[in-house]
Design goal:
Helix content is 2%, strand content 56%. It has 1 helix and 16 strands. The protein has one helix at residues 173-177; strands at residues 36-45, 50-57, 63-70, 73-81, 85-89, 94-100, 103-110, 116-121, 127-131, 135-140, 143-149, 151-161, 187-198, 208-222, 225-237, 243-258. A 16-stranded antiparallel beta barrel has the order 1-2-3-4-5-6-7-8-9-10-11-12-13-14-15-16. A hairpin with a 2-residue loop joins strand 6 and strand 7 (103-110). Mean pLDDT is 84; it is low at 2-32.
């Protein structure tokens, strides 16, 4: 499975992702406690595409396999963890991630021409920038407010805690979810605005930064768990900078399993 943002644009250590849900009983002594973890995600789009993601964990609660079932095929990312290394095998190539203070500082391909990416963090443990991807992040407290990665994204937020993968991701979604790329933005976004530079007056004119697409997010939360995400994407400009008006909808349904 190729590494890309698989959730946002169609892109917590999992051992600590334990959700408590209570029965409807008013008697605290009879409350039923659960430790939940994400088992699968069913994706569908108004464009007609769909797939299902399924996750397997080791005894420490880390993702060791990410399967995607699509069009009758299964694509798999496998993860192997050691003290200061994580190896990712997607069936076509392997990547080795080097850790420092529990965060990925370098990712390199294995057994092929060098392809190395480096990541840098601020004093709060938040991702600051990455090279040669030219990722640049701006934070306001616990929230990522702007990320430049080719296009420029700006975010506004809900009050729903961000404990699911993919919504804001810049690398391997599973490792980002587990906190290996530093602190995660605290809440789930309500809107993402994407900007790029256009030359409406011709190639000799000064490029103008304009919004070409924006996403509106809605969530269904049940017993403290996000069970459904709907993202309505609005394309306002095409690649040539001409006005566009298309809209498409992506939906993710999340299923959880009770960890005994």
């Amino acid at each position: 499975m190729t590494q890309k943002n698989l959730f946002g644009n169609v892109i917590l250590l999992i051992a600590a992702i334990t959700f408590s849900a209570c029965s409807s009983s008013n008697d605290d002594a009879n409350e039923e406690k659960h430790n939940w973890r994400l088992a699968s995600i069913q994706y569908s789009s108004s464009t007609g595409s769909s797939y299902k993601d399924a996750f397997s964990y080791d005894t420490a609660g880390r993702v060791v396999k990410w399967d995607r079932y699509q069009d009758g095929k299964c694509y798999t990312n496998s993860y192997n963890y050691s003290n200061d290394k994580i190896t990712i095998d997607n069936g076509l190539m392997e990547y080795e991630c080097t850790l420092s203070d529990g965060r990925i500082t370098q990712q390199a391909t294995v057994a092929r021409d060098p392809d190395t990416k480096s990541y840098f963090y601020d004093e709060e443990g938040r991702l600051s920038y990455g090279t040669p991807l030219f990722i640049e992040c701006e934070w306001s407290g616990e929230h990522l407010t702007k990320m430049a990665w080719g296009a420029i994204s700006e975010y506004t937020y809900t009050t729903i805690i961000n404990n699911i993968p993919f919504i804001i991701s810049h690398s391997d979604a599973m490792l980002e979810w587990q906190g290996y790329y530093g602190k995660r933005t605290r809440h789930l976004p309500s809107k993402e605005m994407r900007y790029a530079y256009f030359n409406p007056a011709g190639p000799s004119a000064e490029p103008q930064l304009e919004c070409y697409e924006y996403d509106d997010y809605e969530y269904v939360v049940s017993n403290g768990l996000v069970t459904e995400v709907t993202c309505t994407s609005h394309l306002t400009k095409d690649v040539a900078g001409e006005t566009a008006g298309s809209t498409y909808v992506n939906t993710w349904k999340l299923e959880y399993e009770d960890v005994k």
